[in-house]
Amino acid sequence: MRFRLTPRETSFYDMFAASADNIVTGSKLLMELLGADTSARAEIAERMRAAEHAGDDATHAIFHQLNSSFITPFDREDIYSLASSLDDIMDFMEEAVDLVVLYNVEELPKGVEQQIEVLARAADLTAEAMPHLRTMDNLTEYWIEVNRLENQADQIHRKLLAHLFNGKYDAIEVLKLKQIVDVLEEAADAFEHVANTVETIAVKES
C-alpha cells in the first residue's frame, strides 16, 4: 500500500516537469540555430547558455529537496539519476551550440538537421511524460518511443560520420564537425537514459 504524499513531497513532480520544459526550450534553440545566419548564432548561444543555467538551477533545487526530505515519492537514487540525466541533456545541447559558434562553422553537414529533429521530438515526449510520474500511468509508450528515437539517432550519427570521412572536408574541419555531431549523439543517449530511469521507477512502483 502506498503512502499518501505530502505537498512537500509532490514538489519533486513539479521540479521534474520544469526541468523537462526547459529542455524543450533548449531543443527549440537548436532548431533555431539551423536556420540562422552565422551572425545570429552568438545571440542564440547566449540564450542557450541562459537555458542551461536555468537547467542547473532546476537540478540543484531537486538535489536540495532530496537532501531535506525524509520521505520521497520514489527511491532517492532514482530521483538523483533522473535529475542528473535531465541535466546532462541540457549540457550536451548547450555544448553543441557553443561549439558551432566557437569553431566558426559556416555550414553544418547535411544530416545534422535530422539529429536535431530527433532531439526536439524526444524533448517534447519527455516534457509530456514528466507529469505522469504522479500516477505512473501512460508511460510505457513514452520510453518505447524514446528508445526508438535513440536508435534512429544512432543511424543518423553513423551516416554523418561516413559523410564527414568521405574526403570532402579537410582534416581540421572533420575534427570540428565530428565533435559537434558526437555531442548531439550524446544528447540523444541522455534522453534514453531519462526514459530508462522512468521505466525503472515505474516498474518499482507497479
TrEMBL record:
Pfam families, per the entry: PhoU_div
PANTHER family: UPF0111 PROTEIN YKAA (PTHR37298:SF1)
Protein family according to the UniProt entry: Belongs to the UPF0111 family.
Protein name: DUF47 domain-containing protein
